[in-house]
Structures are given as C-alpha cells and as structure tokens.
Amino acid sequence: MKTLKDFNFKNKKAIIRVDFNVPLNDKFEVTDATRIEAAKSTIIDILEQDGSCVLMSHLGRPKGKQDEFSLRHIVKDITEIIGVNVKFVNDCTGKKVEEAVANLESGEILLLENLRFYAEEEKGDVAFAEKLSKLGDIYVNDAFGTAHRAHASTTIIAQFFNDNKCFGNLLAREIESIDKVLNNSEKPVLAVLGGAKVSSKITVIENILDKVDHLIIGGGMSFTFIKAQGGKIGNSICEDDKMELALEILKQAKAKNVQVHIPVDVVAADAFSNDANTQICDIDKIPDGWEGVDAGPKSQEIFDKVVNKCKTILWNGPLGVFEMESFAAGTIALGNSIDKATKNGAFSLVGGGDSVAAVKQFGFEDKVSYVSTGGGAMLEMLEGKSLPGIEAILK
Description:
There is one protein chain. This protein has 395 residues and is of the alpha/beta class. It has helices spanning 34-48, 75-82, 95-102, 119-123, 126-133, 169-182, 202-208, 221-228, 243-255, 297-307, 329-343, 353-361, 375-382, 388-394; strands at residues 13-17, 52-56, 86-89, 109-112, 138-141, 165-167, 189-193, 214-217, 232-233, 259-261, 265-269, 278-282, 285-286, 291-295, 312-316, 347-350, 370-371. It has a six-stranded parallel beta sheet with strand order 3-4-2-1-5-6, with helices on both faces. The chain has a six-stranded parallel beta sheet with strand order 10-8-7-15-16-17, with helices on both faces. The protein is elongated and about 70 Å long. The N and C termini lie close together (10 Å).
C-alpha cells in the first residue's frame, strides 16, 4: 500500500483528491469542518517537503455551475485550518487552471472549483480525468468519503499516474482501521449495529458474522428481531418483510458461535416527541400506542459488560433517538462503555453518519480509537466490497 512516505515531494506538485463536501449554513459558513481538519495532515506533510498541493473536491449536488455550491465559499476556512494561504481558481480544467498550476510555487496550495460542476466527474469520463491528471506530478487520494465511487477524480484519474500515486494519511488510516477490525483484530471482537433498519445493514451483518464473537443489535432494527420472535412491540418501528431474515440471521449467528445481544428493556414513549410521556418496559411487552425509543437501564448494564470484555469494537448506529435529549441515555451509556474499554486497551472504531454525529454531540471523539469520515464507503468495506477509489491506487 503506497503512502506519502514512499515519495519525495520536493519541487513536486501533488494533485490531491480531498473530501471537502462540508455542510454550509444560509450565509455560506462551514458548520462542521471535520473533513477539512481530517485532510490537514496530508497537506502539511507535502508542504513541509517543499512540495505544492493542488486540491480538488466536490461540494453538494449541483446541477451545472451553481454559485451556491462554489468551493470559493470555504477558502477562508481551509486557510484558517491549514494555516497556509489557499489560492483559488474558479474552474477545474482549462487554460486558466493550467496557468494557475504552472505558477504554483513550493509550499503553496491551490484549490480548484467544484468538480461536480461538470457532469463528466460523476460519469467517470476518461478525457475529463486525463485533463485533471495534467495538473500534478503525483496523485494522492485522501477522500475516503468518495472512495466507493468510480468518479473521474477518485478512480479514473489514477490510470494516468503509473507508479506516481498513493494514499493520503487520512485514507491510509481509514483502510488500516477497518482492516484491523475485519482481518487483524484482537479477540473477542464486538460489532454494535444500531439505527432504524435491518435492510440497510443486512450485508454488513452477513459479512461480519465470521469475524465477530459478539453482536449487539440496537436501535429501531431491534424491534424487527423481537417481533419475529413473537414479542409485542406496540407502535415501534418494524420491517415486517424482514422478520424471516432476522430469524435467519439469528440462526446463522448461533451456528457460528456468535453471541447476539438485543435490548431486554426499552424506554417507550406515547408519541415521537421529546416531551412525550415515557415508561420503561420489557422490549417484548410494549403496550399498544407506545413505541420503543431508547435502550432501557437493564440493557445498558448488559451491554456495558459485553463491551468491556471485548478487545476490538466496531460501533455503527445509535441505540435510540439520540437527537432528542429524552431518548439519548442508551447511546450515551454505550459511548461511556466504549470509552472505558478503549482506556483499558481495546481498539474501537466508530463509523456511519448517525454514530459519528452521536460521538461528536456527546464528546466521545477523542475517547475512541478512530472515528471514520466516510459513511457509505465504510459500510461498503464492512460489507466486504472492494472500493474503486482504493483499488485504483493499488493497481
């Protein structure tokens, strides 16, 4: 696996695919700069070797050239975070861009305009990728969030660099962290899968059953498992068409000696509202008119014991409707359990949009081993799929 360490960037221009698809408010201010911060290490490493950086990214889902999706809005934030003045060119191919790159000196950064202003980017157009390739001596892919897409800048471009291509620090860490969980883990291994739907996690469960010793199934998807086993779940969310699949997953887990842990009690609410009336009840005895919205206190205790006997922990998905303060206790308790296990030497990887949001909201970012930056890309790796953006560098 080629990384920055395999190259000397002195007097070289690195063309780097970053993922600066950051959220903006209505004043075009960045509301979460995590993805920019995540790319800092790669950019600084290259600049410190007297190299220069040409950065390319997408932002949002523009239809053609739309100023609201221009990357010029985030130049100030990138400059502040990296600590180096960032130049900007309002296109990503063509004479003007080529001149800006030619004038780029060692230690300087140039940001190109939004790649998705061109339909050729998402189509994986070879001619467009070739134009981008002429803007750098070495291609660095540091965008894990788009590594599962065969787009021009994430995958196709790599073919024009022969051996002059590598992973940036962020993407290398992502690959190593997921590989550590899936292939080089210290046992016992635990996967915590939460969120609303079994259907979105089926292939993940099927792929990791051979690799884990314990599986905690929480959040909305737990009710499909409970109802499939004859439990009463009231008005709780449930995928009726996935009940047979849930029973099949339990059967497979038993055959592979994987211990499955599902909440035994829940916080039930009489409305989907932070101000709803609540009661604690057994997960298989939820009254009609009530819905399960969080893991209950007994479940939190059981999960804490499971987490703290494991040496490798993957957390993907919350245990309740943590966005509402009244229903966040189960997710916070899980975070505390994983924090304790990590302090005692376990390797903990958190990934997937909702879990990452929860980890940030409740201050667990620095208390776990690694927080993944790519939701869809991480899920596909956990499903056992090879990602085109990663394969292109390994070729």
